[in-house]
Amino acid sequence: MMVRCSLALLLITASVGVCHVTYKRLTKPQILGFDWKNCGQPNDPAVMKTLAVSPDPISIPGELTATASGSTAVELTAPLSLNVILEREVAGFWVKVPCVEELGSCHYPDVCDILDQVIPPGLDCPEPLRTYGLPCHCPFKSGSYSLPKSDFYLPDIELPSWLTNGHYRVQGVLGMKGTQLGCLEVTFSLHSN
Question: What residues does the MD-2-related lipid-recognition domain cover (predicted)?
Fold first, then answer.
């Protein structure tokens, strides 16, 4: 089973599997203590200005409310790469989780292609992006983008068996033509019964 996650704002994965992963249904999974920060250079052209999610904890399945704003000083065009580093805290140390079936610490050579797979060109962007005139395909023009307070439903999902209770840190570095455009770091805890 391949995992597909859309990171309109947070996570994007591709569809190239390299080995078999066992998936399991977690009982009442929750995300607690969600936090974020920009982790790039002060002169990076793409930055997240605000990002807020609630409630805390976030239940899966369940409702999520989010607001976000960011900007890019350059047009974001294909190929738009994304390097993701996923780490789990083990005995007080951050341990890198390897890339398995495009989930974990992975390199995605073209986020634009992934967006086209998730939302085929010619289809309207999903809500609430459509309501607020936010794009869901490359190119993304330079300028500011804002998602007002919006509600989302998180469906019940199966996660890899290795993605268990614990503290996680995810860093995503966006790049184009060998140049870093921006970096976002997210931390959270995952808990299930």
Answer: 36-188
